[in-house]
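pasting for the record
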Amino acid sequence: MADSVFSNLPAPKPDAILALMGKFRADERAEKIDLGVGVYRDAEGATPVMSSVKAAQEKLVSEEVTKTYVGPTGDKEFNALLAELALGESVEKERVASMQTPGGSGALRVLFELVNEARPGATVWVSNPTWANHIPMLKASGLSTQAYSYFDATSGDVRFDDMLASLNECPQGDVVLLHACCHNPTGANLDLDQWSQVGKLLVERGLLPFFDMAYQGFGDGFDEDAKGMRLVASMVPECVIALSCSKNFAVYRDRVGAAVVVAANSEEATLAMGQMGSIARRSYSMPPNHGAAIVKGVLQDPSLKADWIEELESMRLNMLNLRTSLANELRRLSNSDRFDFLAKHRGMFSRVGLTTEQVDWLRENRAIYMVGDSRINIAGLPADKIEYVASAIIDALANA
């Protein structure tokens, strides 16, 4: 008798974050704290619908007259609004091709496949470390990967000289994947002067910059977070950008994103747009539109947009306050500046600099859950538990 169709499938490699979520849910300790999952949480531990988003959704539901497809490339107005949010006035609009996608991950996959269409089997250089899904998605798209130096786990700073040295070894025509702001998983960003140096090197080496922009507005401010990417985009002949609305509009489950190409000229932008549409058509056919229509509604209404910016700023400042408070408490308890870098990092994430054994000890002995590389979600830290978490980290250093 022949084997059944799926009998020879290999077991999938467990996803570390999903496995951590399962352990957290099964933990019955009342004091448990989840610092692993990458969603924003308010003071009550909830991930709320933003009031501006809720208002736009109510308007959409009351006025919407059809649920027909929007086409493989999505809503043209949404596409233009997202590209403008990210790029501002840094490049000529006729050079920009923008396409609606199922979340930032959908944008990444479309653009990875586009790069592979243009340069089959190209090498994409990713930061060490980078977001956990980058390398699997790149490989699934037929691309090769190499790592460039980025983060010093001891100091919590960017190894910028080493980064430049790594990129200076990239062969002409290779692709460099860059986190536009709020680097995931480290929280360590480049400053504007460093972005300028990276842009010059990319031009000199003939490298294609690929930006992942998932946290605009969570770092130093909405426009401030885009300055580095905009500067580089203004310097290089072409680049690509994956955009996500999951975090800054809090529309996680609605899967809202955009794939953007800044081409050398309008003719190549049109060609890239056509190819992206073909990639979408053979992958998922049409993007979901409910969340994108809500985002468009927020951005088209001056009052709702102002409310959204205000809400986003409140979220940013809350995370910044949590960072500063945790760093200060760790300084007090450790009587050292070892953890001061936490206050300098930006966005949702930071690597605390603990070993796997220390991370395990925190989970088993203090019910504190974080990813094995000690990445924590700052937004998941309850303000009234900062002293408890800091004390537990100090205990883990001594006992694990």
